Amino acid sequence: MSDNKLRVVLLLGTNRKHRKSENAAKWLFRKLEEREDISARFFDPRDFQLPHDHYGMEIGQQFPEWKEAVIQADGIVIVTPEYNHGYPGILKSILDLLLKEYIHKAVGLVGVSAGSWGGTRVIETLLPVVRELGLVPTFTDINFTKIGTRFDEEGNLLDEAYEKRAAAFIDELVWMATTLRWGRENVASKYHQDKEQVSE
After folding, report:
1. Taking the model in full, what pTM does it have?
2. Fewer beta carbons under 10 A from the terminal one: N or C of the chain?
3. So what's the pLDDT on residue 116?
4. How far is residue 58's CA from residue 113's CA, in Å, rounded to a whole number?
5. Over 90: is that where the pLDDT of 60 sits?
6. Would you list the domain boundaries of the chain?
7. Distance of alpha carbon 79 from alpha carbon 27, whole angstroms
8. Segment 101-123 mean pLDDT
């Protein structure tokens, strides 16, 4: 790396119209950008032109910007709404574009819902998915309950309690991403031996 900053990718989990989770994702992205120790990138599923008849690692090469960002990333943040106790299909489709690129990298999960559970169940359903991908979940999550009341129409935060929650979330992400980066660079692993092949 040309500098010592951690590289973090934030992925919004839905492409639906009138998505309220976009406010949470953009606000949290600004919090990441404010950190001097982080270089952050934002990915919107609306920018992924996924085929309707097939998806998976076979077409991962068709999204070089996403692939290279994940290869370079030390951590990933997923901000996703909860739809019927689960995650949006578009989120799973994007995650499934890659595999080895994720291994031994930190992931922080942010759940969003219109109700009082704040995406707790979507985080629970995502945990086995990110684990299978080789990502390492952080200890802290963020749950945006009753998302329609948390931001105004311009996307400004209305509940200051989330400032402290976001700080703790990012601190934990930084710790985990830093530790895992050191491990990838200093501890032998068959997955890291394939790094050059992954980036091809």
Report:
1. 0.91
2. C
3. 77
4. 33
5. no
6. 6-198
7. 11
8. 91
